[in-house]
């Protein structure tokens, strides 16, 4: 059974954001699986790198949507993203030095993302929904994710 099963209570109602959040949950589950079956540190490192890269891309996408929507609280939201990036980078540095932090990353990501979606993202959703149009979404996805 998966470590983290997506809860529809985490849906923002913005399809692409929800898809990206679900992808982060998938990475957390991959990390859990690698830990459970005693995969090598190399495999765990690859998952951590992919998870971090994807999460950073997600933050850029989310911030782009907020900017386009004129969301007034974007700066504090960006600071939350920055604090999270710093924490994850600190954990990755510890992992690279040989510390076993995979369980910490797995647990912290689940708690942080759940709290962030329900406690922070929920506030930008109305502004972003009002501003979305298909051509903007298509261009933004292509620019960020290729």
What is the fold's blueprint, element by element?
Layout: H1 15-36, H2 41-69, H3 74-96, H4 102-131, H5 134-145
Helix pairs in contact: 1-2, 1-4, 2-3, 2-4, 2-5, 3-4
User: What is the helix/strand order?
Assistant: HHHHH
User: Structural class of the secondary structure composition?
Assistant: mainly alpha
Low-confidence stretches: none
* End-to-end distance: 32 Å
Number of helices, where a helix is a run of at least 4 consecutive DSSP H or I residues: 5
The percentage of residues in β strands lies in under 5%
Percentage of residues in helical conformation:
over 70%
Rg, Cα atoms, Å: 16 Å
Topology, number of strands: 0
Shape: elongated
Largest sheet: none
Could you tell me the mean pLDDT?
89
